[in-house]
Amino acid sequence: MRFRQIFRFEFRYQLSSLSTWIYFLIAFMLPFWFSEIVRPNDDAVYINSPFFLILATVFTGVIWLLSAGTIAGQAAARDVQTRMYPLVYTTPVSKLEYLGGRFSAAFLLNALIHTVIPLGFFLGFYLRKVDSGQIGPFRPEAFLSTYFYLSLPLAFYVTTCQFSVSVIRRKAIAALLVSFLLFPILSQLIGYSIANLLDKAALYKLIDLVGISVLKDIETWTPFEKNNRFIPLNGPLLWNRLIWFAIATLVLVYSYYRFTFVHQAEKSARKLRQKKADITGADVASPVPDSKIGMFPLPSFGRSARFSQLLVLTRSSFRYIAGSRTGLSLVGLYAILLVVVAGQFLQEKGVPQYATPMNVLPMITASLTNINTGLIIIPMLIAFLAGELIWRERDYGQHKMSDTMPVSEWGLFLGKYMGLALVIVLWMGFLLLAGVLIQLTQGEANIAFGVFIKALFSIQLINYLLFAMLALAVHVLVNHKYLGHVAVLLAYLFIAFAEKLGIEHTLLIYGSDPGWSYTDMRGFGPFLAPLFWYKAYWMGWALLLAVVGRLALVRTMPEGFGGRIRSIRNRFTRSTTLTTLAGFAIILVTGSYIFYNTNVLNEYVSSREWIKRQAGYERHYRKYLDSPQPRITGTKITVELYPQHRKATIRGSYKLVNLTPVPIDTICLDIKPEVETRNIRFTRTARAVVEDRLHGFNIYTLQKPLQPGDSLQMNFEVVWQSKGFRNTNLDVSVIDNGSYFVNQERFPAIGYNLYRELRTNPERKRYGLPNWKLPSLYDSTSRQIRQGQELTSFEAIVGTDEGQTAIAPGNLVRTWKDNGRNYFHYAANAPIRHKFSIFSARYRTYTSVWKDTVSGKKRDVTFTMYYHPGHADNIERIARSVQASLTYYTRTFGPYPQDHLTIIERSGSVGDLNAEPTAIDYGEAFVLLNVNDNPQALDVIFFAMAHEIAHQWWGTGQVIPALSEGAHVMSESLANYSGLQVVEETYGEEQVRLLLKMWRDAYEVPRMAYMNSLLEANDPFLGYRKGVMALHALTGYTHKETVNNALRQLLIKYGASKPPLANTLDLYGELKAATPDSLHGLLSDYFAKNLYWQLKTDQVHAEPVDATHWKVSLQVKAKKYTIDSTGADRMEPLNDWIEIGVFAPGVASPGVATPGVASTKPLYLKKHKLTQEESTITVLVSEKPVRAGIDPNYLLFDLFPDDNQKNAKINGDRMMKGDAL
């Protein structure tokens, strides 16, 4: 049978190819070294668990998809490329046999390549030195399920698409283009955008080809599940496999009917002539006969002629790429898609963002090492087009003619490079146009042409040009088209993952730099100067790569390695020598300057060395954690900021008081290694016995011990100046516009610093440290004041450049000018926590007064906002939040302890907020949210500011949590709950529903499942999400006044910020005292247990009883179970009051920012006591219902709440249409 012969021949032929074995090697080595690239943060998860096997499989699958198109492409189009098709097409073989045999062989090879992925993963942990404690039991089912559910389907889908397109296009290289279309554009950009546009997260799971959505799902697995669970082939994954199988089959059938055993001629005579002219170089400086002599003179090839040749070759290469179907179209398509889907990317928590350049730039720019972006298509296209240009003449069989043309190797190589460079310039133009159109379509009036041009043509373009030179040189050296593609891809992966492999110095990673960013406040800041030196340095290397390309360019060269070496030696001319020397000179000069900056002016510390120092700090000095130390009760500082010179000097003094019952003869100082701390002096005689600059710890002994109640003063100076630039993470603490630093990062502190300890247990184990965990609730020492929790009087004088405003905690006492500088004097009218920040920028000011009419004291609180002049749109909204929050919190919990509040905008592209005593600061992105003024729309800005103001009562201002388990609940849960109450009072219940839905959607609830109870919470997620849900749900069972009264009692007992500090046991006690005995079991379920419910509504039937009443019957299910720290669950007896709701359609609220929350009105909403897993509940309502269900307001912790409600069936008819609540 001819099918078998064709299959056998194709399989053996491809298996004998070196490129095929390279693919096998890549598929083996990537998972083999996977543990070096990805390290578990949780030591409860084995490194060889099914979870990490899935990660390695998906990661390697993506790399295979982007590189291994050769097999399918060669199987489909090799006869055309080798010019054998006239003979093959005349043989007595059918299309089914011909295409079927070749496709089957290609698919089998790709399937076999995927089999070495689990093999490499398995051997990687047993053949290398991996800690045996991180290796779990071998689970063959995990390998089989991952292969058959992920790897094998991917191999089939991709092979089918690559083979089919290559058959239709009759070009093997088309298979690589299919890879670019399938992953960066279709599977990622389009799939993600459509899913967001339709607000259907499950839709992306159906479109996702390679398994990225699977990774997102398994991130929510518990440690127990990560170690034991396998991929289930059901739900979205099953439908995804079926959909892609259908698509792949249709594509294969289509290609079968399109294929014919007929040669496809050129589409037009003009294209044929153009192709011949381009290939043969007919335009290249041909000699012209001398009409006077009548014979051909010797041609002259001076500089002018060589320059003309270079221009012609550049034009020819450019037209070859630009005229192809992929040269411009793919990036152009990507740019168009960016404009179309911009609204889906320009949002935060469902709220639109303003299309400022700070928000648009991340869409159109990306570092060369960032593979988690659709812009990865550009380096992939560069790699592909570089191979096309190098192999252009040989692919068309014209190399023997073109190689004899009177053109130098410099001209040939640089002509191809410059042609590719012009295409890259056009790509940057597409992205520039996309950025402008995004701003226009999103309603932005100030078009940032200058910013986009600088980012795209001064930074991005250079990166891509450097990579283009590398790609061309690699292709020339490898001298194998498809292996060249693989080699370039491996080079790119090395650049992307070099830091993961322990190579961190930017001088060693091709094309790298310290990084850059742009914000509206600071612009490009100090980033451009280091970029210039780095790009100059890499241009020197690019010159050497050009020399390599020129020397190794294949041109009528003798076969074999020896022949190439001889040819390279012969080509080493004077121009080559001078270029090489110039490259080395540039590398030497710029590299020396960079090294001087990164390793001499600044200390270069690798991540491994930094971790080692952290471990050393703990190992040497943790013994001083509980040693008696004086406490800071007074702080006076004078700060001189020099933003133009990026320098700061600080002179300060602490008043230290012995508040312990024992004399103190030793004072420990935590010194920040990043700055110079000097002139430390005490008002008592003291001697330094330890001055550890490396770890940042000093120990002083007092000649006369400090007796209980006695005090002394400590004076100090801190100086730092950004000298040159660092290897990475440039210091932006003091810059031209937007200086900002926190005292805990610069100032000396008293005692041992717990926050400097290593937190990841695998790293701690490496350095012989015990597992890290928060102190227990029952550890009395955790309730003592720790570093940064002290209450201190505060006074500061801050000087800055003219035109800038400096800000520190406290009231602004006075301002003045001296010697062309601005000075500001601040003083707090009451003690504040010893955690504060200093700011300086060219601010505008908004000042208002809140009048206290609720506490009976009739006092005023002045609040001042300092903001960037271009960010004024949301200032009034913030002011409304401040007014509402101060009113509600003062009335509900107690008075605000200060007479002023300062709100400051902080430079930086992140939109996070931070609360400190008397001050709140926020990143620039926070005020770039385009919040709808409709009162029914989600107002994230209003809530976030209310949350931060609540910290003046919880966590920062009055009730300071003990540094123990549950600390985040005491701080973030209480602040979130308080902010939620302000939102409800201002906007109503609909806004609360929107916020609760946002929290459920943005943070996958299953992530909470395997964590501790709220009492012993050790993860910030519990504080930010589960804690507030518990407190809010409790108001649904009692009343919010009950919860508020408990919090007020907590504030009365622990609001003085004195030891013992409050912890979750105190909160639990106050809640228990405030709630009736009948709810103590529910309270225990919420806080003392890690308990969840599984609630579901199976059916809802409704029938009219009379003209005004309807009978509604619900069949519901309810389970209750606890989950331990490993993720194992245990069923609990059900004896709970659970809410049942019946709803009728309501009036839709226009302008709701977060879709998916339908407007309904309740017809019935009461709690029923359920004791059985299955129950039938019948109620009477006054209107025709549309939906009904169990726990409709999500008062209980249900991991999968989407099935809580069902549409009602009327008299057995089909289900009525209705929106999900």
From TrEMBL:
Alphabetized Pfam families for the sequence: ABC2_membrane_4
Protein name as annotated: Peptidase M1 membrane alanine aminopeptidase domain-containing protein
Record flagged with keyword Membrane: yes
Keywords recorded for this protein, A-Z: Membrane, Transmembrane, Transmembrane helix
Keyword Transmembrane: yes
Segments crossing the lipid bilayer: 12-34, 46-66, 105-127, 147-165, 172-195, 238-257, 327-346, 366-391, 412-441, 447-470, 536-554, 575-596
